[in-house]
Amino acid sequence: MLIEALIDRYKAHFEGGAAYVLPFENRGRDVGVTLPHPHGQIYAFAIVPEPQATAARAFASGYDLIADHASWNGVFDIASDDHCTAFSPPFARFPFETWIMPNRPCRGPWDLDGAGIEALARMLGDIPRRLDGLFGVPMPYMMSFQAAPREAGDEFQFTVQFFPVMRDAGRLKYLASVEQFTGIFTVDVVPEQAAERLRAV
Question: In what order do the strands lie in the sheet with 159-164?
Answer without folding.
Answer: 39-45, 20-27, 141-146, 159-164, 98-102, 84-87, 77-80
